[in-house]
Amino acid sequence: MSVEQDTNKVTPEVLVCPLCGEANGCSYAAGRPHSECWCNRAVFPEGVFDPIPAEQRRKSCICEACLDTYKKKTEQNKEPHS
To answer: pTM for the full model?
Structure first.
């Protein structure tokens, strides 16, 4: 996710996951190069951002834990039920 960077105007909200409220680990929002962020190594499946309220989308990144939880839930839903 792209977060506009202005190191003079970094607010605490951009460092918080909009899904769980914990630190999102976003290097870019913390003022470091985007290339250092964990999200550069991640795959974000379709629908992962849908639970974020529209007014909060694209204002802060989700955290790696929420991404992992989403992936696990979608994989469980894909498994055939016996």
So the answer is: 0.76
